[in-house]
Amino acid sequence: MSRNILFLSKTINSNVRRLCTTPTPVQKAEKLVLIDVNDKTGYGTLSMNRLPVNSLNVELFNALSDAYDEMEKNKSRGVILTSTSPKIFSAGLDINDLYSGDSKSWSELWDASQEAFLKIYDASFPSAAAINGHAIGGGCFFSMICDYRAMVKGYQIGLNEIQVGIALPKVLVMIMGKLLPRRHAEISLTQGTLYSPEQASKINLVDDVVVDKAEAIIKCEAFLNKFRKIPMDAVNTTKRTIRREEIDYIRNNKQKDIDDFVKAVESVEAQNTIKMYYQALKNKK
Ligand SMILES: CC/C=C\C/C=C\CCC/C=C/CC(=O)SCCNC(=O)CCNC(=O)[C@H](O)C(C)(C)COP(=O)(O)OP(=O)(O)OC[C@H]1O[C@@H](n2cnc3c(N)ncnc32)[C@H](O)[C@@H]1OP(=O)(O)O
Hints:
49% of the residues lie in helices and 16% in strands. It has helices spanning 58-73, 95-100, 103-121, 138-144, 161-164, 170-179, 182-191, 197-202, 213-225, 232-252, 254-266, 268-282; strands at 11-13, 16-19, 33-37, 43-48, 78-83, 88-90, 127-131, 134-136, 148-152, 157-158, 208-210. The structure holds ligand LDFHACXW. The site of ligand LDFHACXW has 30 residues, from α2, α3, β8, α4 and α5. It is found in: Mitochondrion matrix.
């Protein structure tokens, strides 16, 4: 059974296409998240597909939310989150949106990010991130809200928001503060440090360092397999107890959190830094 070829199947929504094994090959569809369900294990591999760098915009956040809805509906046993790019997991928030947006578009962006965050962080199945390339800013954060991370050598990972001029949103601080030892969290958040996978594994930012994407997927499957003999209700109740603080914060303070993000992005200082950052990115070549 080939799992690497895209096949035609019913379109789940405008941005998500499920890959299955019905034998009707079609040309590769330009969907923002590709879903490939392994019928044997019941695990869904969700591949972000907003090339070249999987920068996160409203559409990609919505596609991730829709993909998680689909996994919930199909009673998935677990998700592997990865990317179709050969070298980038996700380059974080779309700098173009930060550079050229306004308070309305930034509100919509953050609203969509909150929804995707809740779908992943409060899912009824475990998620494992196969980080097959750079995971920067929001890209790093979306791997952090999975239950496990395996990262391929040779790339960088970290929350560099501060370098882009954006004060760290509260939930990012809460989760980084729980994942990393306190001192590393403080340094990482205030300096926007990017780490090699080897460095990241020493501070709990990634769980395993691997040589390639195939090994990352194997590690993710092995992690998900650990839950096969444990009743998922018990796992989920326990996980929700652990994660309640962040989930409740977003659910109970949705608008305030959006307002805080917009305020952070629209400040003159942030806009000047974003402009310089944007230009440096464009002048790189
Ligand atoms: C409640 C909360 C819930 C959820 C919150 C969700 C998310 C939290 C987010 C919080 C805030 C986050 C802020 C950010 O994420 S800011 C973005 C931070 N990212 C970066 O700084 C990465 C910048 N990019 C790079 O460093 C390199 O591009 C990279 C290493 C990724 C790849 O390098 P490479 O040499 O391979 O390619 P490039 O030539 O540099 O790039 C190719 C083209 O892609 C464009 N690009 C790169 N990054 C971005 C981006 N982030 N947004 C938009 N576009 C990007 C780059 O300009 C190139 O374009 P062209 O020149 O080809 O047009």
